[in-house]
Amino acid sequence: MIHPRxxxxxxIATKVIFGHGTLAQVGDAVRSLGRGKALVLSTPQQADQxxxxxxxxxxxxxxxxxxxxxxxxxxxxxxxxAAYQAAGADCVVAIGGGSTTxxxxxxxxxxxxxxxxxxxxxxxxxxxxxxxxTDKGEKTTRRxxxxxxxxxxxxxxxxxxxxxxMTVTSALNAIAHAVEGLYAADAxxxxxxxxxxxxxxxxxxxxxxxxxxxxxEARAEVLYGAWLGSTTLGYVSMALHxxxxxxxxxxxxxxxxxxxxxMLPHTxxxxxxxxxxxxxxxxxxxxGTVGGGLWDFAKALGAPLRLSDLGLxxxxxxxxxxxATRQPYANPRKFTRDDIKTILTDxxxxxxxxx
Length: 355
Ligand code: NAD
Hints:
This protein is 51% helix and 12% strand. By secondary structure, it is α/β, with parallel strands linked by helices. The chain has two domains: 15-159, Rossmann fold (3-Layer(aba) Sandwich), CATH 3.40.50; 164-349, Dehydroquinate synthase-like, alpha domain. The strands form two sheets. The chain has a six-stranded parallel beta sheet with strand order 1-8-5-4-2-3, sandwiched between helices. Strands 6-7 form a two-stranded antiparallel ribbon.
């Protein structure tokens, strides 16, 4: 690896509890923050898990709000903040995927609530200071220290039932955080180590989870990889890959994890030409070129490979390329609108990346 001569390592602000059966520590977690009234958050699909958390919290629970939704719509957040205040809560416990974590962050940035997050996917929002919100069909993203959760409980047992298709796309979403972390302008030796170890953990564990979703050791390996990928995302700037996925999700309504899964080989392959040293370990781990190896890995796991399968129409590619190049942002390889159109077209067709 090439490290910058000078770097800033900001430290890691979030306490992490990782293991099997760690959900049992949720009450202690709330007490450790000096809080005593937790509003428990989930999606409607995970309302039973929210009620289980309430049972475990006993007198520390202030109630549930089970309407978390993809892309953190502001009208849902407004209702959740009203519920938080009406319940006299002083913290939130979010159990679920990135959508539920996002709702907890949105409440926290408006009320200074402390957050305990219990992730049940590998999306990797829990360690970051990033919040994406949608209002009237527009998605905006911001970073703020107040957004970063105080405490994360990773309980491997909660991931055993994550369906295989979601397991794969969610894991590729986390791998994307790690890959972009490797060439981030503000990467440091610690984020480099975490990013590489994240990719290694997914490479080792993910095929085993796909073969046997109830394999607890492989599930632990994959959740460990998710923690590392999320932590990487939480401390460095993202580039072309996250920007393109943001455009495809925000302006075309494509599903988050699937979009990341499809785009990653193409964006990583494009950037590999500019930063071969930083991405060489990815090629070595994946047994090919950077983009080709990632594409083969995704295909072997049964991941979706074509944006066209997500409902994106061919004429949308021009508009997506135009939106993605409207404002400049850091990326290791310079690009034109035509470059973006080519990347999107390859991803739309599901062509194997060659770089
Ligand atoms: P999600 O949270 O929307 O979950 C998808 C569905 O799966 C939901 O119905 C959920 O209840 C269900 N689910 C979650 N865990 C399950 C389990 N173990 N078993 C069965 N069902 C389960 O999806 P996601 O991919 O985790 O998160 C995507 C969202 O996270 C997007 O809105 C994205 O923008 C956000 N995100 C944010 C960041 C950040 O740093 N801000 C990082 C990554 C993702």
